[in-house]
Amino acid sequence: xxxxxxxxxxxxxxxxxxxxxxxxxxxxxxxxxxxxxxxxxxxxxxxxxxxxxxxxxxxxxxxxxxxxxxxxxxxxxxxxxxxxxxxxxxxxxxxxxxxxxxxxxxxxxxxxxxxxxxxxxxxxxxxxxxxxxxxxxxxxxxxxxxxxxxxxxxxxxxxxxxxxxxxxxxxxxxxxxxxxxxxxxxxxxxxxxxxxxxxxxxxxxxxxxxxxxxxxxxxxxxxxxxxxxxxxxxxxxxxxxxxxxxxxxxxxxxxxxxxxxxxxxxxxxxxxxxxxxxxxxxxxxxxxxxxxxxxxxxxxxxxxxxxxxxxxxxxxxxxxxxxxxxxxxxxxxxxxxxxxxxxxxxxxxxxxxxxxxxxxxxxxxxxxxxxxxxxxxxxxxxxxxxxxxxxxxxxxxxxxxxxxxxxxxxxxxxxxxxx
Length: 419
Prior knowledge:
Layout: H1 2-7, E1 10-12, E2 18-20, E3 30-36, H2 41-57, E4 66-72, H3 77-84, E5 90-91, H4 97-106, E6 114-119, E7 125-127, H5 130-136, H6 150-154, E8 157-159, E9 165-167, E10 175-181, H7 186-204, E11 209-215, H8 220-227, E12 233-234, H9 241-248, E13 256-260, E14 266-268, H10 271-277, E15 292-293, H11 299-304, E16 307-312, H12 315-338, E17 346-351, H13 359-366, E18 376-381, E19 386-390, H14 398-409, E20 416-417
Parallel strand pairs: 3-4, 4-5, 10-11, 11-12, 15-17, 16-17
Antiparallel strand pairs: 1-2, 3-6, 6-7, 8-9, 10-13, 13-14, 16-18, 18-19, 19-20
Helix pairs in contact: 12-14
């Protein structure tokens, strides 16, 4: 039922006959969603490799437990059908454009080709980077590609910058910061000295913290040269755990700083913003707040996540909006957390007088918003290039906000194109 709710009741074959979604789902099954298009050269390069892998996998003992669904970004049905004819699996009916858009939004598809493997019973993501599965697990030996726990992935040894080893078990009970960075990366070299200062301050203050450098350096000499600047630990150069951890926390760019709590549960993937706004670690271990003031450090978050942003005329208005929005945001975040899901939305308030980084002005220009109409709120989904604008915010209550946000999450609010 979980997958039927996002795919509909039926899928199509190349001959335009249909297959019941219930026939390919259930316990022990895996469904791959393949977001692709004929006009996309990387897609056309990957599709033959994927088809070959799929046909070989279907001959294995687990072959009957896997099905793939093509979710097309083609520009017309003729191109869709021509491309689909090259594929040995099923497809979402091209006419279901609304369903395609919802799937792209739900799985945060920001580029194609994207392949996501889902649990056939629950609809939850087993592996968000299915392309890597195809390229690395040639025989499908790791089926059903269920996600490993952080402890399973991280377990092993780490080193200090004198190459002395330490077992990861010795770090249990500490808050862990995973620092994804590289010497060749200019923004990383700019942020690392700041992070070193913050780390040293927090250690001096007795914070229960340890950090681990997860390097993207291209050779061991560069890795060691850069690591010498850091007072913490690291994964050994070239360690495969770095790739697995990058996937686990959806690291799209560097520098990225992830914080894990004492029970090995994720605190935040936006640790860089936490350090930028709280360099002395007064709010360590940086649990995200339901509602935040908009700062330059939030720019990366807005690019990656659906974000509600409430523009106020002055600090008093911003404080009032924040107070009203807080319980609504907290309820939505806690509800997602109880299901072991990420929050479907991030929440910000802003006003010009508190905008030290000029992000408000830049965001308004990017979203084509008219400053003279403040106060208003928008819900922005950069990955889907969609925006909802609400210019009648003076009448909002906590209940009306909750209704609005839930309608957006349920796909019941019409959005416009962002650009």
